[in-house]
């Protein structure tokens, strides 16, 4: 690492440690440090997901193919399989802190990791889900929000019983400590922002989400 690269990484780390960052800073940090993530599977996969989007390979592609198989098997498989998040909060937290320590910096608190995941969810909006050798588009990712959690949701169309049926499933999730959202039903079903882009901005060292008009408390 040369001195200029160190200066740039330090600038990002100082933003992270003082909560002065937004989604664009997370993107810039990923692009600057991606060569240091080869031995940190979680962060490497997330960086490649953000950088390559629908052209992702390896872990991300395998994960999305598995999600498709589980959804296509609904109603036919004897043992119902559950779609889990691509990575858990703990896995992402440990991955980030491993990267920071590898670069020579201290670990960051849980609240900052929560902010990172929110930024990652926003950065991955509108990514197309593809399948097969020809990378046929079969769905896309979108932002969703409930009173308790924020989500990156996968959206697939499944043909069953002679008709097409939309299926949504969580790919990433994080605690909602940003906006007071009024539940839309007793189950707190997430509001799905499909076709509407959300942006994560920073105001006075706090992240804010640019929701379109919706029900907030």
Summarize the helices and strands and which ones pair or pack.
Elements: H1 3-17, H2 23-33, H3 41-52, H4 58-72, H5 89-102, H6 110-123, E1 128-131, E2 136-145, E3 149-160, E4 163-175, E5 191-193, E6 200-203, E7 206-209
Antiparallel strand pairs: 1-2, 2-3, 2-5, 3-4, 6-7
Helix pairs in contact: 1-2, 2-6, 5-6
SSE run: HHHHHHEEEEEEE
Helix fraction?
A: 25-40%
Estimated structural class? alpha+beta
The helix tally amounts to 6
β-strand percent reads 15-25%
| Total strand segments | 7
Biggest β-sheet: count, sense, barrel?
Answer: 5 strands, antiparallel
How is this structure best described in words?
By secondary structure, the chain is α+β, with helices and mostly antiparallel strands. It has helices spanning 3-17, 23-33, 41-52, 58-72, 89-102, 110-123; strands at residues 128-131, 136-145, 149-160, 163-175, 191-193, 200-203, 206-209. Strands 1, 2, 3, 4 and 5 form a five-stranded antiparallel sheet that branches. A two-stranded antiparallel ribbon has the order 6-7. Helix 1 (3-17) runs antiparallel to helix 2 (23-33) and helix 5 (89-102) crosses helix 6 (110-123). The protein is globular and about 60 Å long.
Identify the notable features of this structure and list them briefly.
single chain; 217 residues; alpha+beta
